[in-house]
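@channel sequence for tomorrow's demo:
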Amino acid sequence: MLANVFDLTLFATALTTILVIQDPLGAIPIFLSLTSRQTDAERTRSARQATLVSFAVILAFAIFGRYILRFLGITVPALQISGGLLLLLVALELLTDKADEHPDPDAVATNAALVPLGTPLLAGPGAIVATMVAVDSASGPVIGWVSVTAAIVVTHLIIWVALRFSVGLHRLLGESAIQVLTRIFGLLLAAIAVQMIADGVLAYVDTVMGA
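structure tokens (generated this afternoon):
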């Protein structure tokens, strides 16, 4: 019965991909920079707001992404290829110094938890596309929605913990350790992106040959 609504493999794949893209540990220095002038209570509220905004955006695309693709006439292989290319760009940013660029607190909006932290830093194009691809790769819409939604929930619980205890984690790990982990996440994401592109190309070729 559970197999009819939940795919453990899809859940694990979506969780790994989305978690690597959103990179909670890599977001800690940015979060601390944006909330440097806030009290502990305000920082806690910002962590909650950023997590909720990111969760709402990602979940919306997980639920309605299939209909958006159908309306625009975009096939799953095309989304896989374009999504893989986009994820590869995100991976390259994680592997280079661009991932270390922190927004200036004076240059952002008053509620930095919503923009730019909640979106687009956490719920960015890479995470959105990865979510849509994961849902569309399922054997059925219900399995896709349930499995990917579960992955989204777990991911954002991890994000909330990372942001909520960002001060302690940053002090414990240190800037260097966080940068090393970010580079490792970038390498994993690059491998995921290449696999996604390869799967999209093979699916596209099969579609053309079948036609």
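heads up for whoever presents: The mean pLDDT is 84.
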